[in-house]
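Support request, please re-run this one:
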Amino acid sequence: QSQLEVFQDVEPLALSVVQGYNACILAYGQTGSGKTYTMQGEDERDWGISFRTLEKLWTLLSMRSDEEPNYVYSLELGMLEIYNDEVYDLLNTTTTSNKPNKNGRRPKLDVRRNAEGRLEVPQQHKERISSIPE
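Re-run finished. Output below.
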């Protein structure tokens, strides 16, 4: 499948986000199976589903705010890696909580159920984003 064809499978998630729902895109597979390529792509001509989804979000949010002047939105982005049953924060590269320990390993993050019953990673770093280049 092409990057566009894969994106078309997850494109409805962007509409769900605009409607107020949380969304998650997960790439799963063996080492070397193409997860990073699928998520990131190679360049702007061959964007992966992460960039394509963000682009779609900006388009939908812009359209909605044009139609409803009082519509206010903000987006936060988090990226996690799950490898050998351990969760790593891919955006948090500056704090000691994500730096390798004396064994050369990054600390394992916990996945927990919050008071509303949703799964979350309490220590996960999220970035507020306002454009695709961010």
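The two ends are 28 Å apart (CA to CA). The chain has a mean pLDDT of 85.
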